[in-house]
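Entry 14. Ran structure prediction on the chain below.
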Amino acid sequence: MLATLPGRTQGLGLITEPLLKDLHTGHIAYATINLWATLLGAAFCFPAGWLIDRIGLRTVSTALVLLLGVTVWRMSVFAGGVAGLFLLLLLTRALGQSALSVVSITAVGKSFGRRVGFAMGVYSFLLSIFFVMAFIVVGASVSGRGWRVAWGQIAAALVFVIAPLTLLFLRENPGATAAVEPAAIQPSEVGNASISFGLHQALRTAVFWIFGLATALFGIVSSGLGLFNEAVLAEHGFDQKTFHIFLAVTTFAGLLGQLLCGWLALRHPMQKLMGVALLIYSLALGMLPFVKTFAHLWSFAVLIGSAGGFITVIFFAIWSHAFGRAHLGRIQGAAQILTVLASAIGPLLFARCVALTGSYTPLLLGLALVVLVLGIAAWNVSMPKLAPAVDETIPNPSSVQLRS
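Output, structure tokens:
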């Protein structure tokens, strides 16, 4: 997942200003290019998941890392032009933010059984630590040697370090991809990892849409606040220094939330954990318009940071837990599409709201209400009954249903 850095908003944000200055491109043009590159790049989530299920994690992972490395290198020597910049941004978004993210999350989901929630908690914690370290290292390189050198260094790391490590050490649990024919299933095999939902079956469940839309809403808020966080806090009288401290507090709260959620997932149903997390997230969003003091601000930071940590872990873990692992790549890809689209739409919604009303408050209160409704739905939803894994490219008349 760390390899997706050059395809993510936060990673591209490290080079935005020097890149625009170097290529003589304006902010509006770049924002428009980035929006369409992100939206179109989301389409790569599904084929990435399909390839994982068909070919395997190691081959797909290695190929994507190599392709992303070549793309980042090409961007580091790019001379200019709107069409060329759009193509390079599209490829970094598609290969990094979309396809490689699906691969990374699916790798963990396919590798653990009932303890997937705990594994995802540790995974999310380490991911946050690694990204913080990468921001520091890449940021220093951009400041000291320029964005082209920094991007060239990332390309070299992808091709000569991460790709070989992936090829040599990534191993997939064979049972995670073995589909079982309905006639071969014995009662004792119910609950086995090889008994799974296909994508079409998953899309017909309430679990997929409740958890998918809940995480998409989280993506809308996190991307919108992430881009305009300083402006939102300034609306309530807080300066830039306070904003920087606020980021540190929310990051720390998010890390603790990830570890706590991973531990709780061993003991409590994920739908209950998601319901509580969304309730806290709704409370935080509804609280923000009324934040006036530092006590209010730090309370808000802890609430939204910890709830975000919970939501992240559950999003990573819920798909294999609810639908099994045989078709996890395709299911994970479909879910990832929702989050990528949300990350593209979020900043636009926040910008439109403040342009129309002069404040972020109407949007925040509206989102708080929708998040609350989804939280109630998540608390009450039932996990689907696991059915035999079916190759969805071949018609199968069986309608056998087995209780998990």
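Residues 189 and 195 are 8 Å apart (CA to CA). Will compare against last week's run tomorrow.
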